[in-house]
Amino acid sequence: MLAELEIVPIGTTTTSLSAHLAEVARLVADSGLTYRVGPMGTTVEGDWDAVMRLAKACHEAARQASGRVLTTIRIDDRIDQSGPRLAAKVASLERAAGRPLQR
Amino acid sequence: MLAELEIVPIGTTTTSLSAHLAEVARLVADSGLTYRVGPMGTTVEGDWDAVMRLAKACHEAARQASGRVLTTIRIDDRIDQSGPRLAAKVASLERAAGRPLQR
Amino acid sequence: MLAELEIVPIGTTTTSLSAHLAEVARLVADSGLTYRVGPMGTTVEGDWDAVMRLAKACHEAARQASGRVLTTIRIDDRIDQSGPRLAAKVASLERAAGRPLQR
Amino acid sequence: MLAELEIVPIGTTTTSLSAHLAEVARLVADSGLTYRVGPMGTTVEGDWDAVMRLAKACHEAARQASGRVLTTIRIDDRIDQSGPRLAAKVASLERAAGRPLQR
Lengths: 103, 103, 103, 103
Known about the structure:
Four copies of one chain form a homotetramer. By secondary structure, chain A is of the alpha+beta class.
């Protein structure tokens, strides 16, 4: 399944969040899961338990640095596709649209 | 501001949604806004009115093809940055993490 | 259509957000739209333009008080139901579940 | 922590989802966690493992009935409040707004 993680620390005093999310980014990069960092969240591919182990580690790392964290996990789970979907999903939309799309 | 659009038609009979979202993808590509298609949604950059004009057109196109549509618009609006943020946001996280990240 | 608004000010120095969202709550209550405040967001009922006018006013009020705001708008738009859905949706789930649910 | 669960089966042939979500509603009601059903999702209160056990059971029940499921889990986790927050959060917003709000 695909799962997008969005982690938002609250009460950070600064509007920039990247310093607060650096450890989260390293946890994702070291997880061994296929992932893609986007402008509004990071999408990972794996089964439920692997994804949720990573989500918990990321959430707890953010919570250590901040008294309140809003974490959103958006899952897209499709039984009729067995292969990797992270890149395939955008390619499929591109084929349907009949033109190249910016990624 | 950045805004991610996720449009989900309900009651499509098929689990694949790309055919239902082809027209939406073309509307985004033709909007003139900077955009990036990701595995869980498409992020566009523009001011509130430009973004919402596009969001309404996309939502209505999906609603023509389907009796029910769930649309999620996630906005990240930051006053203290004037330049384009679509690519800059991931680059900033990469610098904070101290390593390259898959995009 | 139904639309849930979730507004998150960033860089607030405090973990409590209610003082930052008081003006947003008053805008919703004064909008004339049917609404319901829940623990994770406020759902309003109205057509696209009325809902988005309110969403813009709420977002801008939060932005005046904070240099960065994350706003999420989740829309559920269903053509085959003309009457009000805000209360009807939970009642329909309750009937399907065959038991009363806490609201 | 608070966690909102939103579960959306794809490819259902009908625009009504309540029959598909009846089993999910029963799982939540039987979980022993404090919960509140709202128009756009159900919010539960518990620690990470209890919440995610329930989220997995709900997601899997929906997946048995449908070839594709989109599940969104939105977490609000705040270290500086130990008591129950499900009702307290809306009451706190109401106090800040200085008026009663529809719930």
